[in-house]
Design a protein that fits this description.
Helix 1 packs parallel to helix 4. It contains 12 helices and 10 strands. The strands form 2 sheets. An 8-stranded antiparallel beta sheet has the order 2-3-4-5-1-8-10-9. The chain has a two-stranded antiparallel ribbon with strand order 6-7. The protein has 363 residues and is of the alpha+beta class. A hairpin with a 3-residue loop joins strand 6 and strand 7. Bound molecules: adenosine-5'-diphosphate and magnesium ion. Magnesium ion binds next to loops.
Length: 363
């Protein structure tokens, strides 16, 4: 076989694999599935766009506290490096096998009425948010994008987003380039904008040319938002105070449809909507609440166990890799692949409903 991959990359892969296997405290899915056999069978491979196994694993090698630790530099990586991605996908998404297929999209338009407010008295839930990710067809993911790609994608999305005329959703696109530090910091603190300098994305080579091509669109109320070129090409977000999941979903569906009319998205026949991180494949839906559950969260271990059983993920108040603050947690569906969009939302909805019951029952 001709050595397409440089010796330098091979050396980093060999050393990275050894580093992971020697890291006693590392609990990532990458460590578990990046075996010697996977290394040997894949280290010489390259995608057509030049993506290597190193591109897939480097964030998890650098950040030993990763939960997962892998990213796909382009769509082909999911197939070419299936030896690594498949077992990780299987384990993360509740047993999604290589023979399984993502079901057709079902956002649940007709079932929104079933999603009655989870917390009508406003005792537990601070806010509700549902987001999905999309990749623009024809473009690779962050590590393979050029500066010109970023600029073109941003210009295209600005036109599409500012062309939205719906009274509730219409808004303005704010590029990160030129945004004042005060405005940016406030938007991040208020949970509207992605943070800067994420070390997991940095190590995955996802922050090149920052802040070029990155920005946020939002309506006046900041209840409908679109992130451009953060982790994924697009993150489409609906959020509002309180626990009315139905309203949040309804708004997301309306906005998603308006954007999809104007922009073709990349979809994989088996993996559904394509994303940079394998945890987001399939529906790409993360439905979350910011919730106060002081009694049942007092015992952290027990709380984590209960959430795990209901396929719920716990994050801190400032998102992934942050800590809880004043007892407020971000609780969301963990699984995104191998179920429909509506089922992903339901995973969060049914689980949070149960958590509130448990909280109320605790004397
Ligand atoms: P994502 O899955 O969209 O990448 P992150 O964990 O990176 O989410 O968090 C992004 C931002 O969204 C953070 O500021 C986080 O606090 C905010 N966020 C997530 N869920 C909610 C929610 N239910 N209400 C308000 N803000 C939220
Ligand atoms: Mg994120």
């Amino acid at each position: 076989m001709t050595a397409q991959v440089s010796q330098e990359v091979i050396k980093k892969l060999d050393e990275g694999q050894a580093k992971l296997q020697g890291a006693a405290d590392c609990k990532s899915l990458l460590k578990k599935h990046f075996t010697k056999a996977v290394l040997q069978a894949n280290k010489w491979k390259k995608t057509k766009l030049g993506g290597t196994l190193l591109d897939c694993v480097q964030s998890g090698v650098e950040n030993l506290d990763s939960g997962v630790g892998v990213y796909a530099p382009d769509a082909e990586a999911y197939t070419l490096f299936a030896d690594l991605f498949n077992p990780i996908i299987d384990e993360y998404h509740n047993g999604f096998k290589p023979s399984d297929k993502q079901p057709d999209m079902d956002l649940g338009e007709k079932k929104i009425g079933d999603l009655v407010d989870l917390d009508p008295e406003g005792k537990f839930i601070v806010s509700t948010r549902i987001r999905c990710g999309r990749s623009l067809a024809g473009y690779p993911f962050n590590p393979c994008l050029t500066e010109l790609n970023y600029k073109n994608m941003e210009a295209r999305m600005k036109t599409i987003l500012e062309g939205i005329s719906d009274a509730d959703l219409k808004g303005t696109y704010y590029p990160l380039t030129g945004m004042s530090k005060e405005v940016q910091t406030q938007l991040i603190a208020d949970h509207f904008l992605f943070k800067e300098g994420d070390r997991f994305l940095q190590a995955a080579n996802a922050n090149r040319f920052w802040p070029t091509g990155r920005g946020i669109f939002h309506n006046e109320e900041k209840s409908f938002l679109v992130w451009v070129n953060e982790e994924d090409h697009l993150r489409i977000i609906s959020m509002q105070p309180g626990g009315n999941v139905g309203q949040v979903l309804e708004r997301l569906i309306k906005g998603l449809k308006l954007i999809a009319e104007k922009s073709p998205f990349a979809r994989h026949p088996r993996l559904g909507w394509l994303t940079f991180c394998p945890t987001n494949l399939g529906t790409t839906v993360r439905a979350s609440v910011h919730i106060k559950l002081p009694k049942i969260s007092a015992n952290k271990e027990e709380f984590e166990k209960v959430c795990e059983e209901m396929k719920l993920q716990i994050r801190g108040i400032h998102g992934e890799h942050s800590e809880s603050d004043a007892g407020v947690y971000d609780i969301s569906n963990k699984q995104r692949l191998g179920l429909t969009e509506y089922e992903a939302v339901r995973q969060m909805y049914d689980g949070v409903k149960k958590l509130i019951e448990l909280e109320k029952a605790k004397a």
